[in-house]
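Technical note accompanying the year-one report. For the benefit of new consortium partners, we illustrate the data format agreed upon in the data management plan: each record pairs a sequence with a structure-token string. No post-processing was applied to the example shown here.
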Amino acid sequence: MERQNQTQTNDFLGTAKVGKLLATFAIPCVLSLIIQALYNIVDQIFIGQSGYLPLGNTATGVVYPLTVIALALGLFIGNGTAAAMSINQGQNDIESTHKSVGTGLVAGLFAGVLLTAVSFAFCDPVLKFFGASGSGAAILPYAREYSVFIFAGFTFFILACVINPVIRADGSPKYAMVAMAAGAITNIILDPVFIYAGRMGMNGAALATFIGQAVSFVLHGVYLFKTRSFRLKLSSFIPDFKLLLASLKLGISSFLTQFSIVIISVVNNNLLVRYFADAANAIGIFTVAFKVFGIVISIVVGIASGGQPVVGYNYGAKKYERVKSAFKIILAASAIVGAAATALFEACPQFLLGIFGYTAESCSAAEFALGISAFRIYIGSIFLTCIIKIASVFFQSIGMPVKAMLIALMRDVIFVVPLAYILPLFYREAFYWSAPISDVLTFAASSVMLVLTFKNMSKDASSPSRRALTPQSAARG
């Protein structure tokens, strides 16, 4: 009886209007991902406006790749688990659902503890690798001060990121949004309290983030005692490595999408150290562009990830017309976001830089020009980037991790990184074009893969005897 009730909980994913479902799931998901991205950005805004320019602001940029690694690990496990959940529920497999979630939580705890231990053990070498070696190593003390509480909060942050997509897949996207928002609001309130009133500087900004992440984790954890479509048991937390592997294969594109940001950040920071005698402002300015870029990408990934329960459930149930309808809506919404972001980046780069304290008066002409070019050229093709990101998430949602992984790697690693080193050999400013060229090439490849996949769905719809898809078998696609 319990199995039947839990199975019926998510039946609405296969019957309700697709547009209404996407709005119900995607809006809270978008807000949740924006909130996740805001943690480090809020710190940088307050630090930038409090007299810590340029070293303090740049220090947050040096620590930023490590926070992205934590996010990548959380989404790797969480989105993979959620994708497996949706496919399992589409096939009425409740037993695998609770075991996948329990195993994912254990994996998230392990990842958080391990990342925290490694970060503390190799703090200085890691910070230098991410750009703290610039400006005569003057950045390092600021980065070290900021990193203490950031590292300490990794386990809370990763576990919240694991649970958040599970809550959405369980049919409670609004709760997922509120749980994440509570932590961010706590961070925003405490930042000025600790930085200004408490005069704690960089340490205060990081402490505010730590407390916010702890609050968010507690609220996420509470939900696990009142889930809708599954029930966790003690046996759920005995790791099932077969289910974990299946989930991780489905979540690999989420990991690569985030981890590729780390790779690009390292490449850019080291190139900026090479090209600018005083790299403090240069790294900070470029980090601003990257973080604003990240907000926009969070919106479109949120739209696509919010649609993941709808897409995954209906794909598992072989309701392909609903899958196609969902993708068309996700594509249209993401295109609108991308077009708006492109217009904003081209028209208002000075305003965006000014929010973080960077003006024509606070840095050199060359550094300010770097910021303008970062927005107008380097991330100016964000319209195409948005389409690329939703394609990757879509393939993850339907259990095709190889295609999802290929798209995630293609844009940010296979093309951007080599071009970032090769193009400046001709002239330095050509560096800015590495991202737009990569966007064009990856967009073309993604489009071909999408067209072929939808054709295969149409063929499969006429072959009802085809073997049912499972997360394990899908993970080989």
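Partners are asked to follow this layout when depositing records. The CA atoms of residues 5 and 229 lie 8 Å apart.
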